[in-house]
Amino acid sequence: MKECFKNNWKEHKKVHKVSEKEATQYPPDIYPNFAYTGPLRPYPQSSRRLVPMNIARPDYAFHPNVIKILTDEEIEGLKVACKLAREVMDEAAACIAPGISTDEIDRVVHEACIERDCYPSPLGYYKFPKSCCTSVNEVICHGIPDTRPLVDGDIVNVDITVFHGGFHGDLNETFFVGNVDEAGKKLVRVTYESLMEAIKIGRCSQRAFFLNN
């Protein structure tokens, strides 16, 4: 075996040299404006592989792998849902203050949804128990409202989604509770500015991941 390997060493090295060369030759950069953090680049993907129909599937396997293009009428319906969500957010914002619990914010959101003939989308979604998400301080997102009172210096993000007329209107906003320190204010300000910059480049034919760049 060793003798065979030794006799064919030159041919063996030729194969390795070809492989090493191919590994460093990237295809044309399909994301030329993306700020890569290293030398790795994406290669083309193969097509989706099939699973025989006799094999049991989880529910997500049946979801269409496409984004629906809405008609003008549907876009108007979506706008209505988003407008109602904004109204609900304004109701939530009005009650935020030191001493108010996030459970109380959830009550306000829930009742504001009902008053507008909307279903609070988070309620029951994968067993989520509340009508909105409230994320305080270091909680990144999707916090569950509870009875802890907000205290002076907290920041709280309220994430609201309403379902109306067949569409979900979704938005979130971060609020100062009383007197917030400079670090907290900077976090909220920079996050907001980043959102505005992302919105500026959002347009037809733009790849969504560029918004994260």
From TrEMBL:
<dbReference type="GO" id="GO:0070006">
    <property type="term" value="F:metalloaminopeptidase activity"/>
</dbReference>
<dbReference type="InterPro" id="IPR001714">
    <property type="entry name" value="Pept_M24_MAP"/>
</dbReference>
<feature type="domain" description="Peptidase M24">
    <location>
        <begin position="77"/>
        <end position="201"/>
    </location>
</feature>
<dbReference type="GO" id="GO:0005829">
    <property type="term" value="C:cytosol"/>
</dbReference>
<dbReference type="InterPro" id="IPR036005">
    <property type="entry name" value="Creatinase/aminopeptidase-like"/>
</dbReference>
<protein>
    <submittedName>
        <fullName>Peptidase_M24 domain-containing protein</fullName>
    </submittedName>
</protein>
<dbReference type="InterPro" id="IPR000994">
    <property type="entry name" value="Pept_M24"/>
</dbReference>
<dbReference type="Pfam" id="PF00557">
    <property type="entry name" value="Peptidase_M24"/>
</dbReference>
